[in-house]
């Protein structure tokens, strides 16, 4: 079984164990991710700004793998969009599972 793409312990610790905060943060991340996925379909001139935003948001919730891919993409080119999309989808799948388990989905 592969390791989860989001370190939920990190996020729970960062939120001082307040599950209301954790679920709100993850819900906001999911909402933003919908827009990011659409933008990653046809990335434009704001490519570096987009992946920079994804990188910061990902690292803020403990999605290290996504943050690392976005970091590489920020220094790379638009050809990395598929890798960023895949990592974002992996993180979203883990978030969905987590929220279902904790009753926040």
Overall SS class: mainly alpha
Q: What gap, in angstroms, lies between the N and C termini?
A: 23 Å
CATH architecture: Up-down Bundle
How much helix, percentage-wise, in residues?
over 70%
The low-confidence parts are none
Number of domains: 1
CATH superfamily: HPT domain
What is the count of β-strands? 0
The DSSP helix count reads 5
Main sheet overview: none
User: Can you tell me the CATH class?
Assistant: Mainly Alpha
Report the order of strands and helices: HHHHH
What proportion strand? under 5%
Overall mean confidence score, pLDDT:
93
Shape: elongated
Please give the radius of gyration in angstroms: 13 Å
- CATH topology (level 3) name: Four Helix Bundle (Hemerythrin (Met), subunit A)
Topology:
Layout: H1 8-14, H2 19-41, H3 47-61, H4 64-75, H5 81-102
What would the keywords be for this entry?
105 residues; mainly alpha; Four Helix Bundle (Hemerythrin (Met), subunit A); 75% helix; 0% strand; elongated
Brief sketch in words of this structure:
The chain is mainly alpha-helical.
Can you give a write-up of this model?
With 105 residues, this protein is mainly α. It has a single domain (17-102), classed as Up-down Bundle (Four Helix Bundle (Hemerythrin (Met), subunit A)), CATH 1.20.120.160. The chain has helices at residues 8-14, 19-41, 47-61, 64-75, 81-102. The two termini are 23 Å apart. The model has no long low-confidence stretch (mean pLDDT 93).
């Amino acid at each position: 079984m592969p390791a989860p793409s989001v370190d939920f312990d990190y996020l729970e610790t960062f939120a001082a164990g307040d599950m209301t905060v954790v679920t709100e943060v993850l819900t906001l991340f999911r909402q933003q991710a919908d827009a990011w996925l659409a933008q990653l379909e046809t990335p434009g001139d704001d490519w570096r700004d987009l992946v920079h935003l994804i990188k910061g948001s990902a690292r803020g919730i403990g999605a290290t793998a996504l943050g690392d891919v976005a970091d590489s993409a920020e220094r790379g080119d638009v050809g990395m969009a598929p890798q960023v999309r895949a990592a974002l989808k992996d993180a979203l799948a883990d978030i969905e599972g987590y929220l279902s388990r904790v009753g926040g989905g």
